[in-house]
């Protein structure tokens, strides 16, 4: 699933092709339940103004009088392509929506249909966005704020990070990599972190996100930038996806455990629990 670095790279490429463009037509695949068919019909004729991002959500402002925002979440396999007028049409497979503008066609592809595309008023934003914490890249919390937020969360640390409640943007690979860099066991209750550990974790999250940005993001299967470029950060991963391989730091075999139904990879030597861990599954 694309995480904050991948979504930020898409935002940077969407900005120059959408800011100031006039939307003149919309087509949607009505089999995709997370594409807002009825809402999107209210989009044209509308001018796109700016392309924002909060966590993993893209928020495209418009001149619509109701203050509506075009909201996009890439889900597991979603991606955008942009085709200028006169260029060959993109591959038609898995197309869930197209937005025609005076600069060309923006196409939303999503093989597994977990992505979201909707044209929503301010009071209808998804709960995951409305309840999200500060953005990891654009408006990161201070260490004190981050630690105070974690202190009220009894869930395993990795689960707490994936919730987006404490900071918006981390996904599976970012959480695994940051916990490894900060020497924190992923099952440690978030509430047990000391201020120093919270600061180390926040720094690690930002460091991994910036490194992924520099590498063009992380492509495991479907993720591509707007121009079709794949990311290369997967070759720099230290723990995520490396279960049973040696730790790059100490040589110990990496292990995997299930936390609330999702797999986390960690090094038992570099990330020992600081105390008894709760039973997790």
- DSSP summary: helix tally: 7
User: How far is it from the N-terminal to the C-terminal residue, by CA?
Assistant: 22 Å
- How would you describe the oligomerization state of the chains in this entry? single chain
CATH architecture label name of the largest domain: Alpha-Beta Barrel
What would CATH call the class of the largest domain?
Answer: Alpha Beta
Strand order of the largest sheet: 5-7-6-1-2-3-4-8
User: CATH topology of the largest domain, anyone?
Assistant: N-terminal domain of MutM-like DNA repair proteins
β-strand amount? 15-25%
* H/E element order: HEHEEEEEEEHHHHHEE
- How many extended strands? 10
In total, the number of domains comes to 2
> What radius of gyration results from the CA coordinates?
20 Å
Mean pLDDT: 92
Could you list some keywords that capture this structure?
single chain; 281 residues; N-terminal domain of MutM-like DNA repair proteins; 2 domains; eight-stranded antiparallel β-sheet; two-stranded antiparallel sheet
Short account of what is shown:
The protein is an alpha+beta fold. The chain contains seven helices and ten strands.
General description of the model:
- This protein is an alpha+beta fold.
- The chain folds into two domains: 4-130, N-terminal domain of MutM-like DNA repair proteins (Alpha-Beta Barrel), CATH 3.20.190; 143-266, Helicase, Ruva Protein, domain 3, CATH 1.10.8.50.
- It has helices spanning 4-18, 37-40, 127-130, 143-150, 157-162, 172-181, 195-214, and strands at residues 22-28, 46-54, 57-62, 69-73, 79-83, 95-101, 104-109, 116-120, 255-259, 262-266.
- The chain has an eight-stranded antiparallel β-sheet with strand order 5-7-6-1-2-3-4-8. Strands 9-10 form a two-stranded antiparallel ribbon.
- It is elongated.
- 42% of the residues are buried.
